Every structure is written in structure tokens, then in C-alpha cells.
């Protein structure tokens, strides 16, 4: 088999994190919601961010996009400080629980084309290449045959896919998605998971807030657990499963560790429907 060895410069460029948070604290106004966050994402990774409602997952996503207050620490994107990022379109965003309003009178293609705007500049017009990218984005989410359909007539799951296609049309290097599979039926969740798998196969870097780790597990490279405003765990799906079984073992042995058990009922378990029981904090696991 013919194997090429990447030159050191290519390897260095590939290894440079696309997202790097160091002791970051994010919030709204004066009050930080999320503190002491260390997080590094490399190109091609698919990272799930899980945790109970209100724990700070959306706040973390908005923090990555510069949409809230960074009160301490640092955020670097593509090797540069967040506030020095000239090209915001390098980060694509699919916001939480967002479906298109019934009052929007636009076709799927028109909505997806609006995602091209950051690449056109003000008053820019779509050129042939832009139209090809829009068509390709619709194809990637499996909606080529719905390009001319009014979005208000599409199902919730299809509307989510239109919104993912809209983000893709901006040709982001990192796609940040807040609960892309929430609130859609199980069949649509599987379709969405297939769409995300297709993107992962094309090395699209993704950071995905999700309740449905199960549906996405096969494509994840990392799982990050956020609870009560802190990152409690950051590891591979295998380490995550092992940490969970450690916790179960501890419970069996009656060694109850309150730090491992935030005590919220929570349905995100990747190993059946057990309630949220937390996982080992990563600093103590490294020690
Ligand atoms: P999650 O995504 O894990 O459900 P969030 O990040 O949405 O959690 O919320 C974490 C905390 O931040 C909650 O206490 C919430 O009330 C607060 N919060 C979220 N958005 C805002 C906002 N725009 N202004 C003030 N507080 C907010």
C-alpha cells in the first residue's frame, strides 16, 4: 500500500488545536455561569458535550462563538485569541431548539443560501460557485429533493437538517451544534445521526451538545461532561464508559462519592436508561 508521510510542517499545522480554552469562565454580564474550563479540540474531532439541563452546555457553546462574556481565562480559535478572529464564519453554529417559524415564507434552498451571506459580504450576490455550495449542503443533509419546498411545510427533523445545511453553506471549519437531535422523533434522530456521520467522514470538526449520546456514539471521538458550571469529565467514549462503570462499582461497594454524583435524574446515559450519576472529575483521575 502506498502511504505518504506528512511533512513536519503539515503535521504541526494539523496538530494545532482548532479550539483551545484555558481556565475560561463564561457567563452573562457580571456573573460567570461556567468556570475553570480547559478544553482542547483538534481538527477532525467529534466532541459530544453532555450534562443536566441548566449545567452550562449552551453557555459553553456560546462562549466558543464569542456570544457571551469571557470573564477570565483564554479562548483561542485556530491558534488566535477569540477577539482577534477576523473571520467569524470559520465557526458554524446551529442554535438550540431552533425550528423555522411558520411565518417564514422561504424555500429550503433560500434558507440554506442565507448561510452563504458571511462569505459574500454585504450586498453580495450568489455566484455559480455559491449556488453549487448551497446545492451540495442540501445534498449532505439529504434534502436535495426538497430544495424548492416551503420550509414551513417540512417536518421538525427536516427543518433541523435545513438549519444544519445553512451552517454548512458558510463552509465552517468547526460546526458547533446545540442539541441538533432534541425534540424530533426517533426516526428523524437516526436520519440526523446519519447526516452527522457523513460530515464526520468528511473530517468536519464538530462540537455537539446532546442528550442522545446513544444515537451519536459511533461517531464521537470525545465526550465532555458539564455539570453545575464545571467540566467534570473529558475523555474518549471508552474512558467515559469505564468511568461510569467505576462509579457503579463504587456504589456497589458503598463508597459514595458526592463529587461523582451530582444527583440529578438525567436521561443522557449511553449505557441504557440509568439516571445521571456523574463520572470521575478528570483532575482526580489523572492524579
Ligand atoms: P444548559 O445548556 O446546560 O441547559 P445553559 O448554559 O443554557 O445550560 O444555562 C446555564 C445557566 O446559565 C442557567 O442557570 C441559566 O439560567 C443561565 N443562563 C443561560 N442563558 C442566560 C442568559 N442569556 N442570561 C442570563 N443567564 C443565562
UniProtKB/TrEMBL annotation:
Region annotation Disordered: where it falls in the sequence: 242-287
What InterPro entries does the entry give? AAA+_ATPase, ABC_transporter-like_ATP-bd, ABC_transporter-like_CS, Metal_Ion_Import_ABC, P-loop_NTPase
Identify the residues that the record assigns to the ABC transporter domain, covering every copy.
Answer: 19-253
CDD domains referenced in this protein's UniProt entry, alphabetically: ABC_Metallic_Cations
Q: Which SMART domains match?
A: AAA (SM00382)
Q: What is this protein called?
A: Zinc transport system ATP-binding protein
For this chain, the family text in UniProt reads: Belongs to the ABC transporter superfamily.
**What keywords appear on the UniProt entry?**
ATP-binding, Nucleotide-binding, Transport
Q: Quote the Gene3D superfamilies the UniProt record gives.
A: P-loop containing nucleotide triphosphate hydrolases
Could you read off the lineage of the organism from its UniProt record? Bacteria, Bacillati, Actinomycetota, Actinomycetes, Micrococcales
Task: Give the compositionally biased regions (Basic and acidic residues).
Answer: 245-264
Q: Which GO terms describe its molecular function?
A: ATP binding; ATP hydrolysis activity
Q: Does the keyword Membrane apply?
A: no
Q: Which Pfam families match?
A: ABC_tran
